[in-house]
Structure formats: C-alpha cells, structure tokens
C-alpha cells in the first residue's frame, strides 16, 4: 500500500536480496516433496551461494543425492521482517531456485539458478551475475538495533521527521514508525485505522557505516526542525489533548 510521497533512491534488487539473506534468521527449504524450516543453519558465501548445515536424513540431503545433474533440486525462501512492531512486518521475501551439492561431513552448498525478490511494490527477477557480485547493504547488520533504538528512545525525533512527509501521506494517520533504514535513506510506516503506507526520506549522500548514518540522520532532523509541523499531526495532538 503505497503513499504519494516520491520514492527516494534505495538499494538495487541484487543488493536488497543479498541483505535479506545476510540478516534472515531462518531459511525455509522445499525439496524432495517436503518443506522444512531451519533456524540459524545457513551462511552465505561471497558469491551468493548458501551453506546449509542440516541433519543427514533431511530433505535437502536427499535432494542433493537424488536430483538429476544440472536440474534445480530445491527452492529456498528467506523473509525479511521489520524489527519494530508494525502491520505486515514482512518487508521482503527472497526465493532461490537451484541445487545442492553433496558434502561429506560438512554443510551442503546451494547454488542458485534463479533469484526472485518480492517487495510490496511487486516481484522482480534478479540477475544472477549481479546477485553474485552484490554485497549486503553496509547498514544491514546494524539496522535492527538502530531502528528499535530510534522507535523506543526517540519518538520525538520520529514525530519531527514527519515534517518532511507530504501532508497527503499523513492524512488520517494514527501512528508513524521507523520501518527500515539503508545507506540511501530512512523509510517510515504511516499507519491508519484500516490501512497503511510507507514513505522514504532520502539522505543527502549514501552512508557507508553507522558514523556516517548518524551524520545523515542529524541532517534530516535539522531539515525537519526548519519545516512546519504537519497540520494532520497538529489536529491529532489537539484531539488527544481534548
């Protein structure tokens, strides 16, 4: 459910998919006619392969041993959940189709032959070469901590940032919550009674680490402080005081 706020620059599909794989806690595997979910069992190689540490009697192992050579033998699914409590917490999903390589006494290696990224805006097929060459967003590992701190410790700052949001995007808003942050900008979730929408606030330059992110956030807040408070939120506060 989009809003009328212009889309700010964001990570490309390949980098977004790699970020999801790098931060996902679990991996659902459909192989050999079965679907199994593994928590904390996967790691990602530098070129986008997936190492999966599973029991010897699991469906992925059977798929690795029995699949026809060169044919996809499994589908892996990863979900990206927002670290703050909001409606529709799944921000993106990534599906990898490909095959497992048998390994003696070690984790299975999964090589993708097809990568699909689904975001609220729709699904896209990710180029395999771009996926292999991409790296996760440099803020991906710290994002959950940063967003929960912003939401829990600085609600005043979140409210101030709404001054940078177009008034029509705040119409009938009941709550605004930080939903995502990457090197290019901050995404806010605007919730209403029966609907919601997301708006992005772009940084003036990409942030490559948390130190640079702090500077970018301070710049956004400075811009927000110089802007007028949205009338929609003024009315909400007035109604609440009454």
Features:
242 residues, alpha+beta, eight-stranded antiparallel sheet, three-stranded antiparallel sheet, 7 helices, 11 strands, 29% helix, disordered N terminus
The overall pLDDT, averaged over residues, is 90
pLDDT under 50 segments (min length 5)?
A: 1-6
Number of helices: 7
Largest sheet: 8 strands, antiparallel
H/E series: HEEEEHEEEEHHHEEEHH
Q: What is the number of E strands?
A: 11
Radius of gyration: 21 Å
Structural class: alpha+beta
User: Termini separation (Å)?
Assistant: 31 Å
Based on Cα principal axes, name the global outline.
elongated
Proportion of helical residues: 25-40%
Question: What does this protein structure show overall?
Answer:
The chain is an alpha+beta fold and 242 residues long. It is built from seven helices and eleven strands. Strands 1, 2, 3, 4, 5, 6, 7 and 8 form an eight-stranded antiparallel beta sheet that branches. A three-stranded antiparallel beta sheet has the order 9-10-11. The longest helix is centred in the C-terminal third of the chain and has 16 residues, at 210-225. The model is unreliable at 1-6 (pLDDT under 50).
């Amino acid at each position: 459910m989009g809003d009328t706020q212009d889309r700010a620059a964001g990570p490309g599909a390949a980098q977004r998919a790699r970020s999801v794989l790098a931060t996902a806690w679990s991996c659902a595997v459909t192989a050999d006619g079965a679907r199994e979910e593994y928590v904390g069992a996967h790691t990602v190689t530098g070129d986008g392969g997936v190492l999966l540490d599973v029991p010897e009697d699991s469906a992925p192992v059977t798929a690795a041993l029995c699949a026809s050579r060169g044919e996809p033998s499994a589908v892996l699914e990863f979900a990206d959940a927002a670290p703050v409590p909001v409606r529709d917490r799944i921000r993106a999903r990534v599906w990898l189709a490909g095959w497992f390589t048998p390994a003696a006494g070690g984790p299975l290696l999964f090589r993708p032959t097809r990568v699909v990224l689904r975001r609220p805006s729709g699904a896209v097929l990710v180029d395999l070469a771009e996926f292999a060459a991409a790296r996760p967003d440099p803020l991906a590992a710290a994002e959950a901590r940063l967003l929960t701190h912003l939401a829990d410790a600085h609600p005043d700052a979140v409210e101030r940032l709404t001054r940078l949001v177009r008034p029509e995007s705040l119409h009938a808003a009941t709550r605004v919550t930080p939903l995502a942050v990457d090197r290019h900008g901050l995404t806010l979730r605007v919730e209403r009674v029966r609907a919601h929408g997301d708006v992005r606030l772009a940084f003036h330059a990409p942030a490559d680490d948390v130190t640079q992110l702090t500077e970018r956030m301070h710049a956004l807040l400075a811009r927000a402080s110089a802007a007028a408070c949205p009338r929609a939120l003024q009315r909400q506060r007035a109604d609440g005081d009454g």
